[in-house]
Amino acid sequence: MRIKTRETKKDSKIKFLSTLCILLYLFIFTQILLYKIEIPIFLKTLSSILFNIPALLTFIYLFFILKNKGYLPNTVDSSFLAQHLRYFKKFCNRCQMYRPERSHHCSKCNRCIKKMDHHCIWLGVCINNDNMGHFVRFIFFGFWSSFILFATQMSFLLMNRDKNFYKKNVVLAVFIITTTLVTAITSIITFLFFKTAFRNVMKNVTFLEKEKYVDYQMFTNNEVTNPYDRGVWKNIRDVLGDPRSLFLFGRDSDGIFFEKTYECDMWPPSCKEISRRREIQYL
């Protein structure tokens, strides 16, 4: 079991370093590209501004994602727990602690996570209540910078298609063509990630909750309204914060207490619990 844990941590570090290397490669290569290529100065300046600002924001939000891991404290003040016991109904046998709704125990982090969305294997951390907003911003600006870089490279390739540039600068041409393909793939992937993540934000549902709800529907063929869905605007503010900050930082949810449209012990309902209740009913 210990060997498996070490291998998992090693794989996680390799994937994170691979992601970081790709980001650094695209960022550094873009600076070289904008310096080397011959395009109108206005287009070069505009491309530099439109790329560098979101690229720098991407690295900033990556730092905040890694910093805010959303770990629940192993010890909770007894008076606080007694006062808010109805919010801490689940008990984690591994951490030996009560935890609030929407929290889960991550087997890779070996900790209970506040409003856990999923464990990101490429970043090596859990996407949770404390960094979900930063994650959405990270993939949004990652898509933006990748798309701008792709558009700049395509413009350059089209402007030089009838010239002898490729014969005179073989190495640079190979790098540009390769990076164009990489940025095209990166743009598509980050766009799909952002689309999925933002759709969940608008519905105030996590990836884990969505997966469990699908299982619940298959098990019962029933539909249950999401109690956390309080409307698109409020849902977005819970994750991305005050719109006066242009959603660039902040959040309105603490990951412990959640406003709901109706009271319920668990959402989505557990299929195991439903099965147990049915067995009791027919005893």
Automatic annotation (TrEMBL):
Assigned protein family: Belongs to the DHHC palmitoyltransferase family. PFA5 subfamily.
Top EC group: transferase
PROSITE patterns found in the cross-reference section: DHHC (PS50216)
GO MF assignments: protein-cysteine S-palmitoyltransferase activity
Transmembrane segments: 16-35, 41-64, 138-158, 170-194
Notes on the domains: The DHHC domain is required for palmitoyltransferase activity.
Alphabetical UniProt keywords: Acyltransferase, Lipoprotein, Membrane, Palmitate, Transferase, Transmembrane, Transmembrane helix
Cellular location(s): Membrane
Catalysed conversion reaction: L-cysteinyl-[protein] + hexadecanoyl-CoA = S-hexadecanoyl-L-cysteinyl-[protein] + CoA
Domain of life, per lineage: Eukaryota
One Pfam match: DHHC
Membrane topology, from the record: Multi-pass membrane protein
Known EC number: 2.3.1.225
GO CC, any one term: Golgi apparatus
Full protein name: Palmitoyltransferase
Residue ranges that the Swiss-Prot or TrEMBL entry lists as coiled coil: none
Primary subcellular site in the record, as a coarse category: membrane
InterPro entries referenced in this protein's UniProt entry, alphabetically: Palmitoyltrfase_DHHC, PFA4/ZDH16/20/ERF2-like
Keyword Lipoprotein: yes
Domain Palmitoyltransferase DHHC, first and last residues per copy: 88-212
GO terms of biological process kind: protein targeting to membrane
